[in-house]
């Protein structure tokens, strides 16, 4: 096999014989004889720890349609039935059955001045954390960000009141 590999790499018969320490005629005879050329076919399927549980998993997935059962739940179920493998095997197997259809995103539309969404987010930079108050108006999608070091009520109020006070009805 080594002779064939070296020959495919472009080495001459003389270079192969020198490198392997064998006669040039030996190299020639191996290169001429196709019976010594290694040929590999597809590997035989190895039995999996999951094989006895595959019919049960397919049955559970079909029964739950149109809903999806998470792999962690299915893993817990077959573990009680005697499965000794890991959760990753189950995840990889059921991935092929997961529906790929994506639902259209429907935007939530409001009239001007009707709605605002607010939240805090954490921005990490190394060990330090910085909190950011984010407010987004529902109609225009205009956003406002104010940074603070905490997530207290007073930080929320200083974030929302000065900026948007008076822009809403009743407000």
Walkthrough of the structure:
It is a single chain. With 171 residues, this protein is an alpha+beta fold. It folds into 3 domains: 2-36, no CATH class; 51-97; 116-164. It has helices at residues 2-8, 13-20, 24-32, 54-64, 71-80, 87-94, 153-164, and strands spanning 116-125, 128-137, 143-148. Strands 1-2-3 form a 3-stranded antiparallel beta sheet. Helix 2 packs across helix 3 (24-32) and helix 5 packs across helix 6. The mean pLDDT is 83.
Give me the Rg, rounded. 33 Å
The N- and C-terminal alpha carbons lie at a distance of 83 Å
For the biggest β-sheet, the strand order reads: 1-2-3
What would the average pLDDT be, to the nearest integer? 83
Query: What is the percent of helical residues?
Result: 25-40%
- Counting structural domains, the number is 3
Helix count, DSSP H or I runs of 4 or more residues: 7
* String of helices and strands: HHHHHHEEEH
Count all strands and give the number: 3
């Amino acid at each position: 096999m080594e002779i064939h590999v070296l020959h495919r790499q472009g080495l001459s018969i003389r270079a192969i014989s020198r490198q392997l320490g064998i006669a040039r005629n030996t190299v020639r005879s191996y290169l001429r004889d196709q019976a010594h050329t290694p040929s590999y076919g597809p590997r035989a399927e190895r039995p999996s720890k999951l094989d006895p549980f595959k019919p049960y998993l397919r049955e559970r997935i079909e029964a739950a349609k149109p809903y999806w059962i998470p792999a962690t739940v299915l893993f817990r179920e077959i573990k009680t039935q005697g499965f000794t493998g890991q959760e990753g095997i189950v995840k990889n197997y059921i991935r092929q059955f997961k529906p790929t259809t994506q639902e259209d995103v429907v935007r939530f539309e409001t009239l001007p001045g009707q709605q605002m969404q607010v939240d805090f987010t954490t921005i990490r930079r190394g060990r330090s954390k910085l909190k950011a108050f984010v407010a987004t108006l529902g109609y225009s999608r205009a956003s406002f960000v104010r940074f603070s070091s905490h997530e207290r009520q007073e930080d929320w109020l200083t974030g929302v009141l000065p900026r948007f006070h008076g822009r809403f009805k009743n407000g």
